[in-house]
Structures are given as C-alpha cells and as structure tokens.
Amino acid sequence: MLILFVLLAALMLTPLMLGGFSEPGEEAPVEMILLFVGTVSMTGGFLAGTNNGVQKADISAGWKRYSFVLPPTAKQQALSDLLVKLMLILLFGLLSAAFAMIYSVTANYNAFGLMLNIYLGAVCAVMLIDVAYSYIIMFAKTKKDLAVIGVAAFLGAGLIIKIVDLFLSGTNLLSDNNLAEHPAEDGALISDAAFNRFVTALSSGKTTLCIVIAFAVLCALFFLVMWRSHERREP
Asked: To 10 degrees, the CA torsion angle through 118, 122, 125, 129?
C-alpha cells in the first residue's frame, strides 16, 4: 500500500518536475492543485484506514499457544489493533501533508486544510466499513453465516445510501440567491461561485472539527468491536 501511495504521489508531482507552475506572469491552476492534492489525500486515507485482513487472521487464530508464553488479554489485543491502525493513519497522513506542502509552496496556494479534511474524511469512511465488517465477522461462525450476514449488510448499506441520497436531493447544499444570477458558463456542470463555496466549506475549520469528532467516535467503536471479537476467541 505504501509503494502504491508513493507511486501515485510521484505521478501527481509530474507537473512540478516539468515546470508547469514556474512560468512567469501566469497564475497557478487552482483546480489542478485541488485535484492533485485531493486525489493523493483521499488515496492515503483509504489505504490507511482499510482492513488488510491481519486483525481477522489474528482473531481467528485465537493466540492460544502464544498466550501460554506471553498471555495478552482481549483488551490488550484490541488496543494493539487500534494502535497499529493509528500508526498507519499517522504515516499516510504525514506523507499526504508533505505532498500538499510541496504544492502549497511551489504554487503559492494553501491546500493544507483541504488535504486534512479530505484525508480524515476518507479515513472515517473506510474505518466505518472496517468496524461494520469486524462486527459482522464476530457473529459469523461458519461461511454460510458469513454469506447470509454479508448479504444483509450489503442490502442495509444500499438502503442507507438511498436514504442519504433522497435527503441530499431535497437539500441544495450549494444554494444561494446569487447563484441563480450567475449560471455556469461554457457548458460547465457547476459555476465558479458554487465551486468556490464548496471548496471553502470543505476546507473550513468547522468541517475539520466535525470530521475529527467522527474519527474519535470511530476509533472508540473500533476498539470496542475488536475487544469483543478477541473475547469471543479466547480459550
């Protein structure tokens, strides 16, 4: 995952290597900076928060033989799982921040707030899936049980997404009385004013606070689910 992230970041740095932002008298293409930083941050968040199967393998093994030499409790094992995930999140977060810093300094555009919110948002999204997956695994004793629960979870997730979509379709988050007077030009899907409002909201401190709170809640839920999972596997 780290190699994949480094390769993607190097690809996104190609315009800088080719001198794309060094032409005198030209403004930095903000849209491209947002695209590059956002893509790298989102990828880093997904890679950092995703479930790589290691915890499931450890839980299934039960640590039975190893417990006779160095007996860890279920709480200690869950704490270890959480710390490993937090270290991965910190690692990819620092790399994403370094990438955003390069573009911020070179193109003279502050994209750090945008990077932070996109990165933590991606981490929260994947951690939510990880928590749900670990919770489902905890109740599945056989492959048949896992298949049934997996289908139920898939249908439930689709229902939640549909409800959220219906809610968002009835609420225009980018609505503004002035936007109707300034429609998008040149066939663009969204006007410059709406785009700027979206970027401003995504980069704001309030958005960061909400995402940080959600991240803290998900960390607590992950710890509790892993704790309970290890307890069920103890001899």
From this structure: 180
